[in-house]
């Protein structure tokens, strides 16, 4: 017999005995048990989501220039750090030759190699400073 049937039988017996305080106590206990079951189910879902997030976090590598790669990926494909940090989604980024990447999902543009970027865009103006 489960808890629900046990309490239901108790309520029936208390009603037959005309014990109203006991009926009320058993109904209150039944409500509290249902609340605990609902809370437990909510926590199970939350725990499952946190485990999935941790599992994913364990598989990524963060980089100084705010992009993500996967541990053990020999291609070192670049994923959007914005999408990962906001939605825990791994969205492969499109890299450009200027050291930046672009995310097709959130449209974020970040750096994957600041040195390449600086060389490309700052060398052009350096001679002016040298003179
Ligand atoms: Zn993104």
List the main descriptive attributes of the protein structure presented here.
alpha+beta, 3-stranded antiparallel sheet, single chain, 131 residues, rod-shaped
Element-by-element helix/strand order: HHEEEHEEEHH
What hetero molecules are bound to the protein chains? Answer: zinc ion
Overall number of strands: 6
Q: List segments where confidence is low: pLDDT < 50 over at least 5 consecutive residues.
A: none
Please tell me what the overall shape is.
Answer: rod-shaped
Largest sheet: 3 strands, antiparallel
* Strand fraction: 5-15%
**Number of folding domains?**
2
Q: Span between N and C termini?
A: 91 Å
Number of separate helices: 5
- Overall SS class: alpha+beta
Mean pLDDT: 91
Characterization of the model:
- By secondary structure, the protein is an alpha+beta fold.
- It folds into two domains: 3-52; 63-122, no CATH class.
- It is built from five helices and six strands.
- A three-stranded antiparallel β-sheet has the order 1-2-3. The protein has a three-stranded antiparallel β-sheet with strand order 4-5-6, with no helix packed on it.
- Helix 1 packs antiparallel against helix 2.
- The protein is rod-shaped.
- The protein starts with a helix and ends with a helix.
- Residues 80, 82-83, 91, 103, 105-106, 108 line the site of zinc ion.
